[in-house]
Amino acid sequence: MSSSAQSRYAVVDIGSNATRLLVATFDGDKMMEEMFTRVPLRPMEGVAGKISPAAEKNLLKVLSGLRLLIESLKPKSWQAVATAALRDCKNRDALLDKIHRLAGVSVRVLSGREEAETVGRFVAAQFSPKRTLLNVDCGGGSTDCAIVANGKVAAAETFTVGTARPDCGGAAEKTRLTKWLRQNTARRKNIIVAGSGGSVRKLGEICGGIGDISLAKQQKRLLALSVSERAIKFNLTLDRAFSIIPAIEIYRLVLAATNAKSLEVVTGGLAAAVMNEMRKK
After folding, report:
1. Phi, psi of 64 (to 5 degrees)
2. In this structure, are residues 196 and 250 in contact, taking their beta carbons and an 8 Å threshold?
3. How far apart are CA 247 and CA 253, in angstroms?
4. N or C end of the chain, less CB within 10 A?
């Protein structure tokens, strides 16, 4: 086996908007991406709290294919994780058993706090340890927040506010997110507010920097276009063209609640964060 394969890892991330495969190798602590595959499969779409038989069938096919692809690459280690898509699923246990038996994949379902802390630690390593970081990871099923100070997670919480949920999750949960953000940032000075995940990175490209004025401007511009027109004009996948509007709403809420002038866009997301911690064990 080559030295490259010795340091190769893979992570499958089953999310509410898509299932992703990240394959990377490491040179010391430096992660070098070899492959990133995103399958726009929305397992919770159309069925409240449950994965439909059709979505279940598609998910099994996708995971079976990804397992075969991973095995052909012979990584040193790999794992599959799931977030809100399976965390909130009423038929989760039966589905996890089917995935194991029929697709040959063992899935670790992350708690909301575990997801927030994992991504928060990974993002914090991209900044000076002397600075306090608030990281907000906005996905299809949840928005996960973590405050990291002096290299340790000081606070973390998850909210059922997501781009794939009707009205982003509802007024009550958005209010709870706003309250948490205000309470946990009001007394902290010189805090960095960062965003991780595919939606915020794409927004950073479109807006040329993420502040409330630029988000409001692009929100108006995007709303004037159909989903297909957004996809063509801004080089988006169709599911991203749909989810980018609720993503703007969520990040504008974050900026308002924290009184931040802008949001730092960071590299990596849950798959990279899980891989980094998996490698260190």
Report:
1. -60, -45
2. no
3. 10
4. C
The radius of gyration of the chain's CA atoms, rounded to the nearest angstrom, is 18
DSSP code of residue 232: H
Percent of the chain with pLDDT over 90: 61
DSSP structure class, residue 193? E
Six-digit token string for 119:
């991504």
Of 225 and 187, more confident: 225
Whether the Cβ atoms of residue 239 and residue 163 lie closer than 8 Å to each other: no
Tokens 């980094």, residue?
Answer: 276
* SS3 per residue for 86-144: HHCCCCHHHHHHHHHHHHCCCEEECCHHHHHHHHHHHHHCCCCCCCEEEEEEECCCCEE
* Residues 6+ positions from 71 with CB-CB distance below 8 Å: none
- The encoded tokens of residue 116 equal 């927030």
For the cut 50, the answer to whether the pLDDT of residue 1 exceeds it is: no
Q: Cβ neighbours of residue 19 under 8 Å, at least 6 residues apart?
A: 12, 13, 38, 39, 41, 59, 62, 63, 66
Residue 236 is classified by DSSP as -
Q: CB atoms < 10 A from the CB of 114, how many?
A: 18
> What's the pLDDT tens digit per position in 63-76?
999 999 999 999 99
pTM: 0.86
CA distance 94 to 188: 44
